[in-house]
C-alpha cells in the first residue's frame, strides 16, 4: 500500500472484515506447498494475456463482477462501466456489469447471491474471517486451477508463480491473490525533531533493548510526552515477532522454520521476557496507560502529538505515508527484516462463483484486470480527463477544482483490490516506490510453512475456548498493563484447560501431512 490511506486502510479493512465475517467463518484445508521468492508485476496494455480463441469466434457474454466498497457508490460508475466495456468487448467480446456492495453488508449479500443462484461471475473475497475458505468448502466457489493454466498467464506473472497457488484448499485453487509484496517485517518509527534535538544515534538502534534506552531518554527529556504509543495489536509484543503465527498464534513456527515443529508461543521464555520488558516500560511511564483499551491507534497518537514513537509492520513507502498522516517527519529503524507467510498472501482474492455460466470468459476478464493497464486504471482512477489527469508517466492527480471527495469516481485508496503495480501513483506518492517494493521483495525470506493453512474443524470447540482466554488475558499482558509474574502462569493454565495441547497437536498433524505432500 502506498500512501496514507493505503498503508493504514488495509490494516483497518482487515480488522473490520475479520469482525464482520466472524459469523460467516469457516475453515481452510491444507494448502499445497510452494517455494517462494519475489512476485513480479505483470503485463502491459498491448500484450494479449489470454490464450483464448480469437475475439471474433467468441459469443457475446455479459459478466457480473462484485466487490466491496467502503463509502457511497461512485456517482459516475455507469460512465466508467461504459468505458470499460469498450475495451472488454473489443478484446474478449464481453460486457461487464459492475456490482459494488457496501463492505458492511458484503458477506451477507454475497452469501445470499451464492445461495439464490443470482447472476454472478466474478467476486472479490477477503481472506480474513474465513469468507474465502468457507465459501470454497461449501461449494460456492469454482475451482480455477485449469482455468488459470489456460487463460490466466497474466495473473501468474503479476502475482508470481511462487505465490499464486498459496490459497489452495485441499489441493485445489479457488481464488487469485491480490498483487502485493506478500511480506512484512518490523519497523520502529520516531519523531525526527526530537531525534535531532537530543542527538539520538539512530544507527545504534539494533535491538528492542536499544529501543528501551531511547524511551528512557525521551521520558527524561520530555516528561509530558509518552515515549511509546501502544494500542491493541500495535505494540512491542504483537508487532515485534520473529515467528510464523500459522494464522492464529495458537501454535507457532519459531524463526519461520524450526524444522516445521510447532511451539507454544505463550510458554516460550522469549514471550515471558517480552511481557516482562513491556511491563517494566509501562511502569516506568514509557507507554500510554490506556494501551489495553484505547481505540486510538498509534498513528492517531502520533498525529495528536501525544507520543514520540511506535512499532509498525513494515512495508515499502510506509515512512512517507505515516509522515503525511501524522504531520511529523519521522526516522525509521528496521528491527526485523521482511518475512512472507500464508497470511500475507491471503489478504484478499478474486474468485469465480459456482453459478457462473461462462467461467472461461470470467477468467479471461480476470486476467485482463491483472495484465491490462488501461483496465486497471479505469477501475481505480476512472476516466482520464474527467476523474484524473496524468502529471507524469507514472503519477496522476484529480482534475483542477476536484479532490478525492468531490470527483465522480475514485477507488484510488483501494487500488490494492486490483493490480496496483500497474495503476498510476498519486502525485503525493514516492515516485520511486516501485523500486522500493522490488528491493523489499528481494530481501524477503519465505516461511517454511508458506502455503499451509490450518483446518480448525476437528478442534473447533477448543478454538472457541482458547480465543476466549486470549481475549481475557492477551491485551492486558501484551500492552504491559499487568504484571506477568502474577498473570502469565494463570494465562497458560487457562489455555491448557481450554484445550491448547489438543489444538496444537491437531495443527502439527496437519502441518506434517502438508509437508509430506
Give Rg in angstroms.
23 Å
Number of strands: 15
How would you write the strand order of the largest sheet? 2-1-3-11-4
Low-confidence stretches: 1-9, 14-53
Strand count, sense and barrel status of the largest sheet are: 5 strands, mixed
Class from secondary-structure proportions: alpha/beta
Mean model confidence by pLDDT: 89
Percentage of residues in DSSP E strands: 5-15%
Bin the helical content: 25-40%
**N- to C-terminal separation?**
34 Å
**Shape call:** globular
What's the tally of helices? 19
Topology:
Elements: H1 4-21, E1 61-69, H2 77-92, E2 94-102, H3 106-116, E3 122-126, H4 131-137, H5 145-151, H6 153-159, E4 175-177, E5 184-191, H7 192-197, H8 208-221, E6 226-228, H9 236-239, E7 243-244, E8 253-254, H10 269-283, H11 298-303, E9 307-313, H12 318-326, E10 330-340, H13 342-345, E11 348-352, H14 359-371, H15 373-381, E12 389-390, E13 395-397, E14 425-426, H16 433-442, E15 445-446, H17 460-478, H18 484-497, H19 500-516
Parallel strand pairs: 1-2, 1-3, 6-9, 10-15, 13-14
Antiparallel strand pairs: 3-11, 4-11, 5-9, 5-10, 7-8, 12-13
Amino acid at each position: 500500500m502506498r500512501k496514507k490511506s493505503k498503508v493504514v486502510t488495509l490494516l483497518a479493512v482487515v480488522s473490520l472484515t475479520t469482525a464482520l465475517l466472524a459469523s460467516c467463518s469457516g475453515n481452510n484445508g491444507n494448502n499445497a506447498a510452494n517455494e517462494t521468492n519475489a512476485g513480479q508485476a505483470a503485463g502491459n496494455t498491448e500484450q494479449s494475456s489470454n490464450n483464448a480463441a480469437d475475439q471474433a469466434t467468441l459469443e457475446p457474454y455479459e459478466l457480473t463482477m462484485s466487490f466491496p466498497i467502503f463509502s457511497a457508490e461512485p456517482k459516475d460508475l455507469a460512465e466508467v462501466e461504459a468505458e470499460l466495456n469498450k475495451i472488454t468487448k473489443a478484446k474478449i467480446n464481453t460486457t461487464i456489469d459492475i456490482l459494488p456492495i457496501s463492505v458492511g453488508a458484503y458477506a451477507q449479500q454475497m452469501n445470499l447471491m451464492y445461495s439464490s443462484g443470482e447472476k454472478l461471475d466474478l467476486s472479490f473475497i477477503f481472506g480474513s474471517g474465513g469468507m474465502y475458505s468457507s465459501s470454497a468448502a461449501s461449494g460456492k466457489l469454482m475451482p480455477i486451477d485449469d482455468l488459470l493454466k489456460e487463460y490466466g498467464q497474466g495473473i501468474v506473472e503479476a502475482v508470481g508463480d511462487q505465490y499464486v497457488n498459496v490459497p489452495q484448499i485441499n489441493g485445489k485453487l479457488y481464488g487469485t491473490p491480490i498483487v502485493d509484496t506478500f511480506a512484512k517485517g518490523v519497523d520502529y518509527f520516531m519523531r525526527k525533531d526530537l531525534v535531532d534535538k537530543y542527538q539520538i544515534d539512530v544507527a545504534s538502534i539494533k535491538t528492542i533493548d536499544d529501543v528501551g534506552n531511547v524511551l528512557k531518554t525521551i521520558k527524561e527529556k520530555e516528561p509530558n510526552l509518552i515515549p511509546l504509543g501502544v494500542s491493541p495489536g500495535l505494540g512491542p509484543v504483537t508487532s515485534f515477532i520473529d515467528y510464523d503465527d500459522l494464522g492464529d498464534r495458537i501454535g507457532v513456527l519459531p524463526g519461520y522454520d524450526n524444522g516445521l515443529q510447532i511451539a507454544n508461543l505463550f510458554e516460550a521464555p522469549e514471550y515471558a521476557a517480552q511481557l516482562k520488558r513491556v511491563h517494566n516500560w509501562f511502569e516506568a511511564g514509557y507507554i500510554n496507560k490506556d494501551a489495553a483499551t484505547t481505540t486510538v491507534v498509534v498513528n492517531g497518537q502520533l498525529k495528536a502529538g501525544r507520543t514520540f514513537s511506535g512499532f509498525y509492520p513494515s512495508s515499502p513507502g510506509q515512512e512517507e505515508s505515516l509522515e503525511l498522516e501524522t504531520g511529523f517527519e519521522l526516522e525509521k529503524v528496521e528491527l526485523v527484516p521482511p518475512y512472507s507467510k500464508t497470511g500475507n498472501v491471503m489478504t484478499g482474492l478474486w474468485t469465480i462463483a459456482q453459478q457462473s455460466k461462462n467461467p472461461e470468459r470470467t477468467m479471461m476478464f480476470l486476467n485482463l484486470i491483472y495484465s491490462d493497464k488501461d483496465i486497471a486504471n479505469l477501475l481505480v482512477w476512472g476516466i482520464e480527463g474527467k476523474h484524473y489527469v496524468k502529471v507524469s508517466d507514472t503519477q496522476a492527480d484529480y482534475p483542477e477544482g476536484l479532490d478525492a471527495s468531490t470527483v465522480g469516481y475514485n477507488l484510488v485508496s483501494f487500488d490494492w483490490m486490483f493490480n496496483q503495480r500497474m495503476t498510476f501513483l498519486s502525485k503525493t506518492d514516492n515516485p520511486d516506490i516501485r523500486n522500493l517494493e522490488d528491493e523489499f521483495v528481494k530481501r524477503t525470506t519465505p516461511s517454511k510453512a508458506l502455503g499451509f493453512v490450518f483446518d480448525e474443524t476437528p478442534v473447533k470447540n477448543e478454538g472457541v475456548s482458547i480465543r476466549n482466554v486470549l481475549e481475557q488475558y492477551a491485551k492486558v499482558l501484551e500492552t504491559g498493563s499487568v504484571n506477568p509474574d502474577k498473570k502469565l502462569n494463570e494465562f497458560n493454565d487457562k489455555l491448557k484447560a481450554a484445550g491448547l495441547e489438543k489444538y496444537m497437536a491437531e495443527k502439527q498433524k496437519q502441518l506434517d501431512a502438508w509437508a509430506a505432500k
